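Pasting two entries for a bug report.
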Amino acid sequence: MIALVSPNMNSSSFLLTGFSGLEQQYPWISVPFSTIYAVVLLGNCLVLYVIWTEPSLHQPMFYFLAMLAITDLCMGLSTLNTVQGILLGLIQEISLDSCITQAYFIHGLSFMESSVLLTMAFDRYIAICNPLRYSSILTNSRIIKIGLTILGRSFFFIIPPIIRLKYFHYCHPHILSHSFCLHQDLLRLACSDIRFNSYYALMLVICTLLLDAVLILFSYVLILKSVLAIASREEQRKSFQTCISHICAVLIFYIPIISLTMVHRFGKHLSPVVHVLMGNIYILFPPLMNPIIYSVKIQQIRSRILRLFSLKIC
């Protein structure tokens, strides 16, 4: 495969990796992937439409949910062209500039999803532990500032290592590990000094993903403490019920990241198909499941969607 492709490849292009050994089945594999992408796009657009058109949902909790849906929608769009392009036989390689741009958005959107989940945990903490001040703390202007902070935190601090990728010398075979571009994948192919990128990326992960996970856990410890102090079992149940969908979203986001990290770190002996599959789960599972979970678990969104479809049928 390498020998056949490499001579025809431009020196600034990289070979994308699909499901190695299953090339004959690509037309069939493209069917479930097309379905998943369709659900990702339609599901998140539906959530956004419901929140936009329903005045009763113009509340902080649903504004943050809209931020999550936008992030998931963009994450799906960021890999659609390369993943489906490979499966449909439309593309096989990607230029360095396009690869760097895709890596920038994939990592930025991952940090953004983590930040939004942390903000949603903060929202649940205020709603349960300090309900009387909820509306005065989370005003519209403050929500806008939070959104802008999330954007800056997610996309500004990753610029230095991403820009440096453009000036590296890539002397190893230009074969990526996935159907899309990742920062660590390009580092693996570089022969330049990558220490800055490696240490900077590690610091970013610690200061975003790891810190966010710790703060989310801490917020739920405080929430649990507050809920257990409530005398009524019914009130306890209602309080926990408002957190279930967010807890599911947190698990759906962090479990694939941890699994992919473990596969990269300890699964070098595994089939390349496993690496590609885990990479696609990391990218597609949260955007696929989040709109389903929130549509099922949050009564206001569920009833609005049912009402929307009943009107369409009539």
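Entry 2 (this is the one that rendered wrong in the viewer):
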Amino acid sequence: MFRSVARSAAGKHLLRRGYSTESVPDRKVAVLGAAGGIGQPLSLLMKLNPLVSRLALYDIANTPGVAADVSHINSRSEVTGYVGEEQLGQALEGCDVVIIPAGVPRKPGMTRDDLFNINAGIVKGLCSAIAKYCPNALVNMISNPVNSTVPIAAEVFKKAGTYDERKLFGVTTLDVVRAKTFYAGKAKVNVADVNVPVVGGHAGITILPLFSQATPKANLPEDEIKALTKRTQDGGTEVVEAKAGKGSATLSMAYAGAIFADACLKGLNGVPDVVECSFVQSTVTELPFFASKVRLGKSGVEEVLGLGPLSEYEKQGLESLKPELKASIEKGINFANKS
């Protein structure tokens, strides 16, 4: 049953856009933080992806067990587990895509900002290793707060002389996944047909779903649009509270991370018109990093797309989010440069 579900659901999504399983390049993907709450289901989903030929699972503990478990799945990729800093280099060597869900999760009453000091240090160390062992890999940053960890990564890469803005991504796909799900429920349309761009950042009011651009068009009243926006912004908190202190959004985040990594792999392999929202270096606004639609290709970001027409409500939301997002970006840059 699981096999049929995995192949019909994950498989169909991952094999879209004319991909053929024949003549696919070898691609190595690493998951850093693979034994954690996001890392384990993300490792499972990446094992199911036929674009992956080698899957490297790294964490500071418990990775051999996760790797052994996942390796028994009868899919294309060969799985290797790496544990501890002394094995990090081996995990990273030859990688095409590195996914970073490493860090501690949020707990009730904890804001994304509370996570900063712990996760920022973890990210800084991992990115230093990426700069050394796989400087040309596409880096998918999941570790929160993404609004700060992406700028931290950029500064680490700049210091190492390896920074390429086309290859660094903040994974905001979960905001898109939530916006699609919530919109489909209100609009009473098939969620598989829904598209909703989400721009800005990846925390609270910096998350700005553009429901005015949602398809299929539903013409929802403004009060429902505001409620959908609020729910999308607070989606992480909704899950933290529902889990009553025993976890955060791990499963949906793993799914979103797998979807974005798949898009990166398709882009690397030359599949045309691969477009996803992501938090990247940008000139769309005056801020140095911003989430918007991005066209992916063989070098990573091929084009950062504009915002398109915004409703008055969205224009207000855009101006409201800028100060908070600016502060988060600066906080990351300052952290990276203080030592």
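Dev reply: Rendering is fixed now. As a check, the viewer should reflect this: Residues 267 and 297 are 4 Å apart (CA to CA).
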